[in-house]
Amino acid sequence: MRCVVANWKMHLASDEARAFCEDLLGRFTSEGGTEVGIAPPYTLLHLVSALVRPKGIQVFGQNGHAEAKGAFTGEISMPQLRDAGCSGVLLGHSERRQFFGETDAALAKKVKAAWQWDLLPLLCIGESLAQRDAGQTLEVLGQQLSILAETGPGPLWVAYEPVWAIGTGRRAEAAQVREAHAFIRAELQRHLAGTDYQVPILYGGSVTPESFPELLDIPEVAGGLVGGASLDPRKFAELVRQAG
Ligand code: 13P
Asked: Which of 46, 166, 210, 232 has the greatest number of beta carbons closer than 10 A?
């Protein structure tokens, strides 16, 4: 199964989001069997869900709190994401880890909360440049995936996003992606041994229509989690076409 997910981060207002969805749907065919998702900012969830879900495109939250409700000003809960039309939620994006202090311990709770509310977690993992330069890439990925020892098995997508490749125009080399994805697959097999969960592993970090075909040729690359290029419906539709 191939998957292409747009992460809009903190971009677009409602008129822009509507124009994007209408343009995308004009180019979109769901015949390829590729799972397509959009993770808009919270204020756009209802609007985007109403427009794209009838066409089979999934909507993801960009984060979700582990508690179902309570005094957590500025946060959003998993049932609120469901109510707004989400079927999944990005968890552990490096920008959440870097700028908002997201920890693996908190993520384990969030993954369990997502399952409890029937949301598919798209767990993002990846090393910083300093960690790669220090030869710690696989150790970091193993640590980030070790939350699965705590959560136990469940439905999941994983995105490998090297932090140094996000928004920089510098995507990882094929050999680096191959090594990371093979390692992630082995770790997932260990954590999910004896279960039937099929976990697609997406690559993220400066994915464009120019670079995506080569990435898709790499074993264990099931698709992409796309930031900058996902804000252009023409480019995003092309990425979906390439995956299909
Ligand atoms: P870019 O595609 O802009 O590098 O962002 C990747 C990303 O962070 C997707 O979650």
From this structure: 166
Q: How many CA atoms lie within 13 A of 56 on its CB side?
A: 11
Residue 93 bears catalytic tag: yes
Q: How far is the CA of 166 from the centre of ligand 1 (A)?
A: 5
181 is catalytic: no
Domain ranges of the chain: 3-243
Fold of 3-243: TIM Barrel (3.20.20)
| Longest pairwise C-alpha distance within the chain | 47
| Atom 1 (ligand 1) nearest CA | 227
35 C-alpha vs ligand 1 centroid, how far in Å? 18
Q: How confident is the model over 10-16, as a mean pLDDT?
A: 98
Torsion sign (Cα): 47, 23, 233, 88:
positive
Q: What's the mean pLDDT when you consider all of the chain? A: 96
What is the model's pLDDT at position 202?
Answer: 98
d(CA 46, CA 68): 19
Active-site option among 35, 95, 102, 161? 161
| Model pLDDT for residues 184-221, shown as the tens digit of each residue | 999 999 999 999 999 999 999 999 999 999 999 999 99
